[in-house]
Known about the structure:
Layout: E1 3-7, E2 10-12, E3 18-25, E4 33-39, E5 46-51, E6 58-60, E7 68-73, E8 78-83, E9 92-101, E10 107-111, E11 115-119
Parallel strand pairs: 2-11
Antiparallel strand pairs: 1-3, 3-8, 4-5, 4-9, 5-6, 7-8, 9-10, 9-11
Amino acid sequence: QVQLVESGGGLVQPGGSLGLSCAASGFTFSRYAMSWYRQPPGKERELIAAITSFGGVTTYADSVKGRFTISRDNAKNTVYLQMHSLKPADTAVYYCNAKRRDLRAIEYDYWGQGTQVTVSS
């Protein structure tokens, strides 16, 4: 049974920091690219950070570049998102995503349940 379980969300003041974790199980974690998405209130879900299967390449949305860091530990089947200099605009539900396309071009796409991050004074 595939599971992605996010943790670490909560309430933080503007300018503060927060770290999210996503623990994976039920699939071969090291074969999957991992991403973090977020969905602000009343808006669509957006991709904010991604990391390749062995962590060699990371990409970020312009809105979080220089403030957020994605990383992974394949031994622990976990992906992380470290967030600094948080702004009220970062308030959203944050989702973990695992994605892989096999040699037959079949795509595997898994989502966590999301964790709320609220940036407010």
